[in-house]
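Hello,

Following up on my earlier ticket. Below are the two sequence lines again, exactly as submitted.
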Amino acid sequence: MIESVRPQVDGGRYPIKRALGDEVLVEADVFTDGHDAVVAELLFKHSEEKAWHSIPMEFRHNDHWAAAFRVEKLGRYQYTVRGWTDPFRTWQRDLVKRHEAGQDLTVDLQIGAELLGAEIADYESAIDLAPPPPREEWVVSFEKSLEVVVDPVRARFSSWYEMFPRSFGGLRGVLEVLPYVERLGFNVLYLPPVHPVGVSARKGKNNAIACKPGDVGSPWAIGSKEGGHKALNPELGTFDDFHALVRAAEKREIQIALDIAFQCSPDHPYVKEHPEWFRARPDGTIQYAENPPKKYQDIYPFDFETPAWQSLWEELKSVFEFWVGHGVTIFRVDNPHTKAFAFWEWAIADLKRKHPELIFLAEAFTRPRVMHKLAKLGFTQSYTYFTWRNTKHELTEYFTELATEPSREYFRPNFWPNTPDILHETLQHGGRPAFIVRAVLAATAAANYGMYGPAYELQERTPREPGSEEYLNSEKYELKRWDLERADSLAPMITRLNTLRRENAALQSDWSLQFHPVDNSQLIAYSKKAGDNEILVVVNLDVHHPQSGWIDFAPCEVHDLLSGGHYRWTKPRNYIELSPHKLPAHVFKVTRT
Amino acid sequence: MIESVRPQVDGGRYPIKRALGDEVLVEADVFTDGHDAVVAELLFKHSEEKAWHSIPMEFRHNDHWAAAFRVEKLGRYQYTVRGWTDPFRTWQRDLVKRHEAGQDLTVDLQIGAELLGAEIADYESAIDLAPPPPREEWVVSFEKSLEVVVDPVRARFSSWYEMFPRSFGGLRGVLEVLPYVERLGFNVLYLPPVHPVGVSARKGKNNAIACKPGDVGSPWAIGSKEGGHKALNPELGTFDDFHALVRAAEKREIQIALDIAFQCSPDHPYVKEHPEWFRARPDGTIQYAENPPKKYQDIYPFDFETPAWQSLWEELKSVFEFWVGHGVTIFRVDNPHTKAFAFWEWAIADLKRKHPELIFLAEAFTRPRVMHKLAKLGFTQSYTYFTWRNTKHELTEYFTELATEPSREYFRPNFWPNTPDILHETLQHGGRPAFIVRAVLAATAAANYGMYGPAYELQERTPREPGSEEYLNSEKYELKRWDLERADSLAPMITRLNTLRRENAALQSDWSLQFHPVDNSQLIAYSKKAGDNEILVVVNLDVHHPQSGWIDFAPCEVHDLLSGGHYRWTKPRNYIELSPHKLPAHVFKVTRT
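Thanks for your patience. The regenerated structure is below:
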């Protein structure tokens, strides 16, 4: 019996995920009726290989076996488990017991010789014999082979910075600001849609229904007579500018990520050329986006279930292909949960077959099962509820869920303390300490994190109106001028956080996360490990008052990578004090002697 | 998307279990991309029915749906879930929102009419319209249908009494002792093997290798020249006696359970007639049972993997058929884990197809995964580790595991405080209080329980030697004379426990089990519920000293069904005191007002 082969997602319906060089620890329950000796083997191969590699599994306890393999190539691997009951090993095992009990072994050595198909001289030679290979008919294989998708390392460990090119004068302006982004330490530079912006029903500043002359509109209202999803907004620059940006970024080890938002402004060329891709209303007009009673007349959604779905789906997939052709390998996908699940499963699988280096980040701020489904269907990384998890209890529960099975096998969280759509009230009311606290949490709890800047480091914090999570004078609808050198910028803190992330392997993956008790509900403490590298983070969640408490943490030396402080903890409980007015967090490097 | 349909065992590979009249609460995650209204239905049918019954599922929260059906017929039912996104319901839902926002509905009413295929007069009539049935192509079904085995009620709720007929003068003697068993309140009377006992290598008293004249041998050494598994030991009586016993027991609502032990004494007729069913040694002898270095020369195991396995398996299955033909419907199976898994799955499925009323109790005192596998493969009930769980921590952990998913869906525990093979040291050293404590625990924590009597009520407690769990002068190897009327017998206590079990539905199933905190590690408290019936059990596990403590239990009235005591608990914490020298347990009936 070969059971409970893991890791697996939904009984093998979906692949697990790993990054290049990661290990896959495979476990299984392998057992038989009776008392015969059991052998278990792990089989694995890259999908392009014909033959399986096999590794003996190690018996742990209670019918539980384990073995690991390393994924060395992008794409997909298959793995499964096989086993058999081995009469020769059973005989050898029992022979030792009989010998130890001083029994006569004459007949037993005959039985062994029959099993081996060769003479066995005596006990001593018997126990050293290598068991013959199993007969084919003995071997039982697990009912299916499981799959692992192997992504580039940046799928597991990435630091994203989002900025609106038009506020910097377009693509050439972004190119000029690259040294700043590099200094901050980000390795993914994510741009909101770069396509022509619609004119009809264009929104004004602060999402006003009527726009005024000179209003630039929302980049998510995609398409004008100048083109659609495969065009560049001429106000941002040319394809030459785009290529220059991609190349310059690459030199700084920064990858450009594009935002793919599958929706059209009424001016999008698709609307005239492919009316069959949209839903018609009885009055002959095209169905605009709605969330009744709200109406978004400037946006036409695609009808993913149109009779012409095949040509639509092919075209949408080709949008990704188009930008891959222009050097883009990372895509942030806008609202994937309002598009067909089947489209994503098909499109991402097909795209990654040809381009296994691609990374897709799902922006699905929706219900948990839908969010997780999209991850199972193929998205490489996912936005999360991090922004709305603020208390120690909420953070502990949520981080734990994400770092444990089954979630972690397929759902790679990407933590964002802010986005152009989400200015959480913690940031609105918590001042500079809140910006530091949320950046430290995101950057240390999640190996993938990002922020919308320069709004973040400049601590932009005024909501459109009380109770709203929208920014006042949101950059979504207007140009902003940012003073990147402002004296109160958090740029140095963010630079430091990204440096720590690069220098400490413990912060480059999520699974080792462990919480440590602190006797103060405003102080949260967690650690991560990778080999010898161990990081302990302690954060004061109270952005108004100093907090102190005792942390349970085994004796060690800790060196604060933020403040430079150095402490020798000789007892199992240690004193912590953090003030929001100085530094509200410790990021300790832990040394054990 | 229809996901996580439950209850299920190993992704539907094995059926769940229920007793006649039980409810199957089916839950599922049903959701879709986008914002369309979803409908979910539970489908179920008895395997002999052609058409599915359907019940609308109820939306709970977060894409989670539930519905229940009742199993009214023995055998197997199938169940599954289907769902669809419903454009008309979506439209109705949105129409209400538009109406509430005071929007013009002209075009929307046209859209609704198109969906309905009929005129819609106005808003008021629109919202009352019944949605048209779904088009076939919309409907998505869960990837498989799941199964539930429906057993007789005694599969869920049974009280077993094991006795050796030969100590009572055979089957006629058992018939005479039936009123005693009925008075004790048991409804299953289980007899060790009733077949002729082998003569060759017969074991003597206390398992002596050499037997003496007059020694009766072990009933598990099955088969002599007088017959094998389909014969009665002539010393026990005739088939007429057997039929008389079955009928007399039935009148008292007691069912006779037989022990089926698939092994042979060297004298079993199979050995001569079917040498191909056994394994031969190179010296021409038949392979006897072994657990190296131990040898059991009086027992020949069947070779379940013999080339002649088909005729062997058919014959073994026919042993059950034979006894079913003589009125037996309950079988206790000896050591099923040393026989082929595949045999049990095939044989039990086939037997229950013809006789869905059959109950099989697996005596598999082995590793957890093997024990659970046998339950999945078809055994109706299972012996457990109860005997070796004695501390509050052990009991809490083990009872909780058994009463929760996934275990409870397929593994029905049957708790035995003793068996002819197991006299636990708790009973050896704990005196009368230990016998009471273990009986109360078994009878109240498990809806299925049993004991080996009269050894139990007469508190037989001398081990063969220190450290052994075998009885001294074990009834397995010799006749015993039991004084059923002894003044210190626990018969009255056992009678009372079985009465409570019959009178309180809460004690007739396992799933409602809940533990309640008591601030004393020697006092364990748990409750069970069925409708209005609620039972709270508190046991002092310290069989030497009185113990007291405070239990957390919401205000109520409690009436002690063992002592007759009556208490009004007005606070959330209440005082408990139990002495092993009086009654070491409360079995409270709880009344809430």
